[in-house]
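Q: Structure tokens for this one, please.
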Amino acid sequence: MLMSNRSRTARLHYLANGFRVLSPGDHVLCAISGEAIPLDDLRYWDVRSQQAYATAEIATKALLDQ
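A: Here is the predicted structure, written as tokens:
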């Protein structure tokens, strides 16, 4: 039986211009809201803290709160 990546949280290593998949999945969770972010829609993350963000607004707030 093949393992499906549907509804499975991926583990990623965030890089400056992309990310590397450490454990396969179809989404990651927003560090602030907890919202599931499909990997195809992932646009915002922080390399230093290795956290993903669902929207530009959430990413900006997280950056300003540091």
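A few notes: The chain has a mean pLDDT of 93. The chain has one domain: 11-64.
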